[in-house]
Amino acid sequence: MFNIRTDLAVESREIYREAYKREVPGVDVETEESENCSVTRVKIIDESGEREMGKPKGMYITIDVPKLKNADQDLKDEISQVLAKELKALCKNNENTKTLIVGLGNWNVTPDALGPKVVERVLVTRQYFLAYKKDSDDTVANVSAISPGVMGLTGIETSEIVKGVVEKTKPDLIIAVDALAARRMERVSTTIQISDTGISPGSGIGNKRIGLTKDYLGVPVVAIGVPTVVDAATMVNDTMDLIIGSMKNQAEIGSEFYSVLEQISTEEKYSLIREVLEPFMLNVVVTPKEIDIIIDDLSIIIANGINMALHHGIDLKDVNRYIR
Amino acid sequence: MFNIRTDLAVESREIYREAYKREVPGVDVETEESENCSVTRVKIIDESGEREMGKPKGMYITIDVPKLKNADQDLKDEISQVLAKELKALCKNNENTKTLIVGLGNWNVTPDALGPKVVERVLVTRQYFLAYKKDSDDTVANVSAISPGVMGLTGIETSEIVKGVVEKTKPDLIIAVDALAARRMERVSTTIQISDTGISPGSGIGNKRIGLTKDYLGVPVVAIGVPTVVDAATMVNDTMDLIIGSMKNQAEIGSEFYSVLEQISTEEKYSLIREVLEPFMLNVVVTPKEIDIIIDDLSIIIANGINMALHHGIDLKDVNRYIR
Amino acid sequence: MFNIRTDLAVESREIYREAYKREVPGVDVETEESENCSVTRVKIIDESGEREMGKPKGMYITIDVPKLKNADQDLKDEISQVLAKELKALCKNNENTKTLIVGLGNWNVTPDALGPKVVERVLVTRQYFLAYKKDSDDTVANVSAISPGVMGLTGIETSEIVKGVVEKTKPDLIIAVDALAARRMERVSTTIQISDTGISPGSGIGNKRIGLTKDYLGVPVVAIGVPTVVDAATMVNDTMDLIIGSMKNQAEIGSEFYSVLEQISTEEKYSLIREVLEPFMLNVVVTPKEIDIIIDDLSIIIANGINMALHHGIDLKDVNRYIR
Amino acid sequence: MFNIRTDLAVESREIYREAYKREVPGVDVETEESENCSVTRVKIIDESGEREMGKPKGMYITIDVPKLKNADQDLKDEISQVLAKELKALCKNNENTKTLIVGLGNWNVTPDALGPKVVERVLVTRQYFLAYKKDSDDTVANVSAISPGVMGLTGIETSEIVKGVVEKTKPDLIIAVDALAARRMERVSTTIQISDTGISPGSGIGNKRIGLTKDYLGVPVVAIGVPTVVDAATMVNDTMDLIIGSMKNQAEIGSEFYSVLEQISTEEKYSLIREVLEPFMLNVVVTPKEIDIIIDDLSIIIANGINMALHHGIDLKDVNRYIR
Fold first, then answer.
1. D318 in reach of chain B (CB within 8 A)
2. Residue A153 contacts D, CB cutoff 8 Å
3. DSSP state of B57
4. Potential cystine with B140: which of A129, B50, B311, D60 (Cβ 3.0-4.6 Å)?
5. ipTM value
6. CA distances from D247 to A239, C103, D243 (A)
């Protein structure tokens, strides 16, 4: 397994295929294309898949929307709807399912604030079920939501806060939303990943040590993630590869250069870059300039998707009415 | 007991004394004056005190700083220090005490955001005690902090979230910070109340039904509160009293008016106002125009006070270095 | 003319009619009702109208939407459209009109931040006309926008900043957006006033001394205003009137009380309240609790209305795509 | 002259010296070291200096504070004081000087928001001089301040807005504050540059085409800038150089690789990287993770420095009292 940092299953697969020129063993892949977006379902089915992908067994669905960054309202609505459909399939929820939405990340660091922003916008209803002592409703399901913050702000492991809340409120399902790091800048804010494996320790932006999994919490955890930064080391690495590629086709100097680089394995090269960058890059993010606006837009798209997936009485026609 | 809404023990006492022209039974009062501030310690000692004050037995300390709104740095530092001293006396903490700070209120409603803002600024250290597996430290104590939000945002009772966190992290002490409603506009943002009785259901701004008490949480709860709004009904009530007062001294019309008003008891009058205002005033706040800046200033003063009270190695000389 | 503070022409008219039981002289009134909103066009036609209304000659259009506070997306879109229609009629603009949008108010004081928020959201295009050296476009008109701040923040008269910008950029039309003070809490965030008289010195929240008028700027100024606060004195005044009203129907005490109050004229009573409140109410606002959210919603509705009124290629179908 | 993007004169000099192994002609350099900071004064004295440095003639003072990112209050105060001293020397202001502070940049893009944040915090007094019709004061000078926004927000050239304000308010001096792009990540938020040459078109973050110079505005312009981002291309470039450096000392593969790279000139290499990165990096920033907090801290340090430099009655003892 490579040490290249990515939270996206499609990128782990890509890295493997670039290196070994074949499909990852222990992994099933299915793709569905439409005009504006493509949906890739990567299923890790056994230990060899886990090992090569560096991710636990389970389903990883990626919704790719190249034009998402400059999307008009129609495209945004379309993505919310695709997200709602895939989410519903993974969550297997019905109108009696009690869901807790967890917004992970640090609200003070813009590219890490996606989770808390979604929590601010999602339709929360549990208080009405309590107030009217109801078990079910004609249009909405029982939904609560919390942004536990990060350890640097609270001094408390995020997973402990969530476990405390789960024990008190006993939801049937958890949906955790997090900002991710991608390998390629093209994926930043154009890809949404949903998975039924929860959140593994060490994923997301920053050194969150949380693990929000069914094992730990006793409740199924579906994770929604969107890459909002790229790792500086992968950016340098990819740029060097592009340069080499562009030189290969040039004069003798290029070919010589290329043959040298050929001798260094992908893994070695990445480690080298990482080592060189580490001392002064530890806390650097590479992020789109207009990240404030992107996070805002994404949080609405995702909150709308969640609202449609969870609340049986909310559909595309009226979903924008419920956004906060 | 009057139905006039106030979270301040000094105001409950004031209302009683205005009506009955004597000290409240079951209550001990002690006052300490200095150049810039006065400290009033109201101790409710028995059931009669509880009944007349409408508040549970315990100590209620009020720090009044008339010039707080336009305070310079020296006065702010002085208040932080007075707060630290009174807080330390109530908390009875030492360098081994593990404290959880709870910031109550809704961060989206400016005058209700005091608690969350203090939590953002206080020095949180529990993560280092965990990381270095230490039990004590030369300069700082073990402090964690959380802003649980309000039920309208999360769908979860605030007290349940706090109890979940308390069960997981086992603090020895809780300090809860909340924005309060006062009866008099003069008290808004010039009074700090500290009490060892925790937070009773129904106090604070908005209809929080939480109770954060030792009984419920199993850990002592010290509450810090600052009024940031006045109740619209009390404002109208007080204005009418002032008008009547000013008319009493005028021509015959005043005296007649006055004698009419005399016939209505204080309680009746307040109920009348409340009833009239209710339909369209339910969600109105009366608050200083520059409330955004006031909340910012207060959160620094209180966070500094808490930092000095909890961390044995932080004193006035360097407290501003630890503020976030 | 009464000294009761209101920025709304419909309220000035209301006050006059309450006092004199007849229509204001020198004023033409026209009303149009629909299911969700009513549009009132008050035209001040001569000096007697100016004197009695305390406002300069011109057209004052009020859009009243009682359900605006809890509006769904359809109602919001409807209001944007009504606003666009009325605005277009007042502005008499076409696709070659160059418009400067001015967002008045202090972005640090939530209820005063409406103007700056609208400016953040409106579709600004002048830079493209400059970059491509074009005079006209198929879908958009030439629009620029500025939030000049308030004198307490900049040390500069707002009107001077605007005049400087007007001299440099030579727009054909100015649309100025401002938060207003209303007399009645019911009007707060449910009423939009448009007028072709610009902004008079002393209107809006806070003591802005600006006058943004055609006289001063040399360009027609259309003003859009929404009340976001009520004056504390008018609130007390109105409450007292309601109390008296409710007492009138009660026992002998009421009738006596009422007859006393009858002897005080409306004007006297208001002055009395103002005098009593002044010392400690100078900087108080009375505002809905959820004002942060209300301002956000209103800024989108108004920005959408402006976008449809100014840009010939933007209509209801796609207006939400252009909002920032 | 190299095409490598930097707004810092010390970096332009560094690049020249790296390439030609000698001091830049037409440039005088003077350095002053103290325990916590070093001050470098680069004076471009003639056309050859202008050409090689790519910057207009004038004085460029750099205050370098390696520990600024984790500074305690004492260090922050020290830097404010050093800044005040250097600023005063460049501005040649006295207690009768009327100063306009201009905060450049986009307040919606965190690393570009330094200028507007400083403007929010600086002590603005011009309104009192107007209100009391005074020409001078015992403790403060006449200061106004404006954040004109960026063309993408307003549709108006920033320089035109500033010129309009200058014509209306007639200041004697302009201080313009801007966020810069640096070549080295180490300089981000640890370096403050002051210069008496104003702001040249194309500097700062983003493609601002403004030029705020004495020539255009008719008033001396002193610029204060702090790098808050690095250019992605320079980051990749520098990383590649570091990698080559670390390989040189290794086995035969390194030496071969190195000799290849030797054949490519610095300039060629940078162009190559830029070309490769351009399509997908156009709007990317590389910035510290905790940039929100850094910008906050820096804006206080700079506002304090400006306050002490401009207001004769404010010194280190009380400067923190005047910060907003």
1. yes
2. no
3. S
4. B311
5. 0.86
6. 18, 58, 6
Whole-number Å distance between alpha carbons of D50 and D1:
10
| CA quadruple B67, B70, B73, B78: dihedral, nearest 10 | 20
B residues 28-87 closer than 8 Å to D (CB) = 72-74
Q: Which among B321, B322, B323, B324 is the top mutation candidate for probing chain D, defined by the most D β-carbons within 10 Å of its own β-carbon?
A: B321
Give just the sign of the alpha carbon dihedral B34, B60, B319, D192: negative
D139 CA to centre of own chain = 29
* Cβ atoms within 10 Å of A32's Cβ, excluding its own: 13
Q: Which residues of A touch B145 (CB under 8 A)?
A: 153-155
CA dihedral A109, D71, D295, C106 (to 10 degrees): 110
- Does the CA dihedral D197-D199-D200-D204 come out positive or negative? positive
Q: How far apart are CA C217 and CA C146, in angstroms?
A: 15
What is d(CA B244, CA C269) in angstroms, rounded to the nearest whole number? 12
Q: Does D109 touch chain A (CB under 8 A)?
A: yes
3-state secondary structure D189-225: CCEEEEECCCECCCCCCCCCCCCECHHHHCCCEEEEE
Q: Looking at CA atoms only, how far is residue D177 from chain B in angstroms?
A: 23
Q: Out of A143, A144, A164, whose CB is closest to B165?
A: A164
Strand partners, A33: A38
Closest by CA to D292, choosing from C120, A112, A295, A154, is A112
Would you state the structure tokens that stand for residue C26, as one six-digit string?
A: 């020198």
Type of residue at D111: P
Q: How far apart are CA D43 and CA D27, in angstroms?
A: 6
Q: What is the DSSP letter of C169?
A: H
Q: Which of C110, C155, A212 is nearest to D143 (CA)?
A: C155
Q: Are D150 and D158 in contact (CB under 8 A)?
A: yes
Cβ-Cβ contacts under 8 Å for D16 (sequence gap 6 or more): D2, D24, D52, D53
- Tell me which residue of D181, D106, D184, D185 sits closest to D147, measured CA to CA: D106
Angle at A31 between CA A29 and CA A36, to 5 degrees: 150
Q: Is D29 left (phi over 0), alpha (psi -120 to 50) or beta?
A: beta
Amino acid in position C172: D
Q: CA C271, C273, C277, C281: dihedral to nearest 10 degrees?
A: -80
Q: Which of D73, D318, D324 sits opposite B320 (nearest CB)?
A: D73
- Phi/psi of residue C157, nearest 5 degrees: -55, 130
Helix (H, G, I), strand (E, B) or coil at D89: helix
Across chain A, how many H-helices and E-strands are there?
Answer: 12, 9
Cα–Cα distance for residue pair B53/B9, rounded to 1 Å: 7
Each residue's pLDDT tens digit in chain A (324 positions)?
Answer: 344 557 899 988 988 888 888 999 999 999 999 999 999 999 999 999 999 898 899 999 999 999 887 787 789 999 999 999 999 999 999 999 999 999 999 998 888 999 999 999 999 999 999 988 999 999 999 999 999 999 989 999 999 999 999 999 999 999 999 999 887 778 888 999 999 999 876 666 555 566 899 999 999 999 999 999 887 777 777 777 766 666 555 545 445 555 555 555 566 666 666 666 665 555 677 888 778 888 989 999 999 999 999 999 888 777 776 766
Tell me the pTM: 0.84
- Nearest chain D Cα distance for residue B151, angstroms: 29
Spell out the residues 6+ positions from residue D33 whose beta carbon is closer than 8 angstroms to its own. none
| Cα dist from B312 to B84, B94, B138, whole Å | 11, 8, 8
Question: Is residue D216 within 8 Å of D164, Cβ to Cβ?
Answer: no
Task: Report DSSP state, residue C68.
Answer: G
Which amino acid type is present at position C233?
A
